[in-house]
Task: inverse folding
């Protein structure tokens, strides 16, 4: 997966938006105004994604491409390198999990607005 494929995949999610709230070097994807993924444009080979704490530990133990979230709460965020042995599908699953965690944390009214 490259940065363009990642961007396209994230923007296919219901209610997903992109922006640069932390400066022009970090592309941020949100749902309901809450961040679910960040990627640096300088080093576009890795992204930060939200993760269930238990699953985060499992992924880190299983894949060297998954480490505690760089500049993030390391309990809830992973940094994921895209140029390793993780498959396209596995990367999509990590993105899906992050999006779902954030979406499900939104108030029901906001969820309904997003899903229509």
Result:
């Amino acid at each position: 997966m490259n940065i363009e494929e990642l961007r396209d995949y994230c923007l296919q999610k219901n209610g997903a938006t992109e922006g640069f709230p932390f400066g022009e070097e970090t592309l941020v994807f949100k749902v309901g105004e809450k961040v679910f993924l960040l990627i640096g444009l300088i080093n576009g080979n890795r992204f930060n994604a939200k993760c269930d704490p238990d699953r985060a530990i499992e992924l880190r133990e299983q894949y060297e491409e998954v480490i505690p979230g760089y500049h993030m709460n390391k309990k809830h965020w992973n940094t994921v390198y895209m140029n390793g042995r993780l498959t396209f599908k596995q990367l999509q699953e990590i993105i899906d999990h992050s999006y779902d965690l954030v979406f499900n944390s939104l108030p029901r009214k906001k969820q309904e607005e997003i899903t229509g």
User: Anything to note?
Assistant: The two ends are 30 Å apart (CA to CA). The chain has one domain: 3-111. The longest helix spans residues 88-105.
